[in-house]
Amino acid sequence: MGEIRARYGANSILNLSSAGSTGALHNTFALLGRFLNLFGGCTHLTDSYNNGAARFILPYLFGTAFSASGFDPATMQYASLIILWGANVLETRQGSEVPQRLVEAKKRGAQIVVIDPRRSVR
Hints:
By secondary structure, the protein is of the alpha/beta class.
């Protein structure tokens, strides 16, 4: 870590510990943060790494009322175009009803575009 910090700076080290961790050391989020600050600093998350991008873009898509509440899969019934940006809903949990809503949308004629670094064809 010292070599990485010397070469790329303290911001190249990310504190990605979980605030809800109940591992061998409790409160690892605070402990790791203190350690990395004593080590010379790090990059801290400003939001959940799972939901940070969604919190940023949802107000632009749905208005400010949705900025804190997240995405409701039921809104897919109104979509004619659905873009899954790096989201493989069959491998990850994007909510239990998302895969079914996608199937319904496809049957209804909605276009579904998947942007993913892995090639997949369906």
